[in-house]
Amino acid sequence: ILSAIVSLPLIELEARIMSSRKPGDSDVLSSLYSMIPLLFLLLACVELSDAAAAVDVYRLVQYDISGVPFGSRIAALNHHAASLHSSAGADLSRSVLIIPLRELNISLVKGNFQLRLIALHLELDYVELDSATLVMTEYISQKKTLGGLLLLLPQMFNFESGDMAVTKDDIHEMERLKNLLVELEELLIHANIPYPVYFAFEHDDIEAVLADIQRNDVNGQAATPTNGGYKFVVSAPEPKKLASPIMTNIQGWLPGLKPDGDTNQLPTIAIVASYDTFGAAPALSVGSDSNGSGVVALLEIARLFSLLYSNPKTRGKYNLLFGLTSGGPYNYNGTHKHFLLQWLRSFDQRLRETIDYAICLNSIGSWDDKLWLHVSKPPQNAYVKQIYERFSGVAGELGLEVELKHKKINISNPRVSLSSWVIAWEHEQFSRLRVTAATLSGLSSAPELFQRTGSLSDSGYLVSEDAIRRSIKLIAQSIARHIYDQQEDMPVFADDSSLAVDLSYVRLWLDLLSRTPRVAPFLTKNDPLVAALKKELAEHTHEVTVQHELLDGMFTFYDSTKAKLNIYQVASVTFDLLLLLAVGSYLIVLFSFLVITTRVHGLIYNFNHDNCVSSFCLLFFNHPIDQL
Fold first, then answer.
1. What's the mean pLDDT in 84-95?
2. Which ranges does the record mark as transmembrane (predicted)?
3. How far is it, in rounded angstroms, from Cα 578 to Cα 459?
4. Residue 37: pLDDT above 60?
5. Considering only CA atoms, which of 7, 38, 48, 4 is closest in space to residue 590?
6. Could you tell me which of 383, 395, 494 has the C-alpha nearest to residue 436?
């Protein structure tokens, strides 16, 4: 409308000039006048408020379990911004709330709603908690309507930020923020949130915007269409279901030594690690410890034993199977409809019968001096006892401690209850096939579904390369002692030998995995990470194969995991009205001026034209024009 109003006087001017110009005049001038209205039309289409900042944001995961919705259900965002300093009782149903992680207290959020109910029941005065706690309680626990939620994370959790210098003074704060983020993530991924939820990282641009928003909120000038302020816009289509997500499993062999050459009847030791992750934001779920550390350990162990097995004199009488599995966060279940069998189903029946035991690796990169060996069979079982004695013996030599932990599972009917349906450890899949297995982990207890599977807090800064090195040495030495039936104090992988753990190799792969999100439903068959893992395993093992399976149908995931947040500083309605009044006044004056000047120009032109004709008639006909 404004462009049309601005253009009308100019179009009027052009029409009058065209009607009054002399025949034969150049068309150049008329062409220039014709371009003026078009120029104003283009200028009027330009957004009057430029973007104050453009920020990469990462959406909270959206998924369904058996049709039950979880996570953030909307991706598009277009609302004014607000902070925790907004006035009490403010309507935030059409506002994007910005909350820095540092200002949260999740432990209070979880109990705040229950405390309110108790206080109401006992008719007690309820003590209000901090604003961040109240906001999280109202808008997540109680599902109060909100325009959107933006959570700011410290840069230490950003895998794209590069190497950061971490001092001893930062360790305590990092641990506090890590625990806080773990609790926040647990709260978010198990909630059904009917508005957009995004994560972003702290940096100068967004912190400057947040400071302005907080200052305005404190002064009672919250951003609204009336007051103006900052507006957050994420242009994203409606999230769509991922069609037929694929699980990819990779396995490689190191055949043992048998005189007659038939290695099928040799006993087999399986070393297994799940490489995929799950987190609140799929685009940020790198899982440096869970389970990047397990993958790194498996690759280094494969490299060490490939050196041993390359020489017939040192090749053991055991086959070694190395398996990189997918679907770990999803009950380790691959595609089988009964959730019991995954990649192991692809093995030949004779092979499954030759597996002596399987050792699964999980979260072995952030422990101090104690690891846990989780088993499903009773500790009194001869095979379990033998495995534990091997590991605990080597651990003692290395100055470490390994503790055995038994968790009974229901093999016959895994769906008696929800707790038995959730498969806590990967070795439980082997146990369901009556194969002796154990999981070595830095975690003392089994995580719940979608917990500790590559969360936002699981970054490379909190993983210890030395812890991974000691874990690798423990596992490799324990397996070697089992294969070669060694006695104590005979280290095969001594630090000063050619079979020492290669820290540069460990660091290289840990860095790659700490920078690569790998949530399985978002990985393709030909994903570069899958190709890199297959290639690396093929460097150290034989007969490397890849199996592709569909993710179990009970899990449904949605796209739109990453977007660009545009932050605009927009004017208030009052400003728009004043601007409209000023432009209207200007147009009235301009239109009046153009009308008057074009009419004067026409009169002058007509007067000059009549005088010219009269002079011509007198000169050539010697009579005035009215006598001809």
1. 83
2. 577-596
3. 51
4. no
5. 7
6. 383
Give the pLDDT mean for 10-36.
49
Give the residues across from 72 on adjacent strands: 193
d(CA 540, CA 301) in angstroms, rounded, equals 10
Q: Dihedral of CA 599/603/609/612: which sign?
A: negative
Q: Are 153 and 181 in contact (CB under 8 A)?
A: yes
Q: How many CB atoms lie within 10 A of CB 544?
A: 18
Helix axes 503-513, 294-309, angle to 10 degrees: 140
Tell me which residue has tokens 């009336």: 226
CA-CA distance, 61 to 185, in Å (whole number)? 10
Quickly tell me which residue has 């506090």 as its tokens: 176
Whether residue 625 has pLDDT greater than 60: no
Question: 10 Å Cβ neighbour count for 374?
Answer: 25
- 545 or 614: whose pLDDT is higher? 545
Reported as type and span, the H/E element at residue 363 is none
CA dihedral 442, 458, 67, 421 (to 10 degrees): 0
Identity of the residue numbered 163: D
Sign of the dihedral defined by the CA atoms of residues 465, 470, 471, 475, in that order: positive
Residue 346: its pLDDT value, please?
A: 55
Phi and psi angles of residue 564, each rounded to the nearest 5 degrees, phi first: -110, 125
Could you report the per-residue pLDDT of 451-460, keeping only the tens digit for each?
778 889 898 8
What is the SS3 string spanning 293-358?
A: HHHHHHHHHHHHHHHHHCCCCCCCCCEEEEEEECCHHHCCCCCCCCCCCCHHHHCCHHHHHHEEEE
Cα–Cα distance, 448 to 464 (Å, whole number): 24
Count the neighbouring beta carbons within 10 Å of the beta carbon of residue 505. 14
Residue 475's DSSP bridge partners are: none
Place of tokens 């093929």: 538
Backbone angles phi, psi at 47, to 5 degrees: -65, 130
DSSP 157-178: G-TTS------HHHHHHHHHHH
d(CA 373, CA 547): 28
Q: What Cα–Cα distance (Å) separates residue 71 from each residue in 196, 287, 497?
A: 9, 19, 51
Q: What pLDDT is stored for residue 474 in this prediction?
A: 95
Query: DSSP letter at 276?
Result: -
What's the CA gap between 440 and 622, in Å, rounded? 123
User: In the prediction, which pLDDT does 551 show?
Assistant: 84
pLDDT digits (tens, 9 = 90+) for 56-72: 999 999 999 989 999 99
Structure tokens at 531: 């190709």
d(CA 41, CA 220): 38
Please name which of 9, 1, 22, 7 lies closest in space to residue 601, comparing C-alpha atoms: 22
Q: What is Dmax (Cα atoms) for the chain?
A: 140
The residue to which tokens 């977007």 are assigned: 563
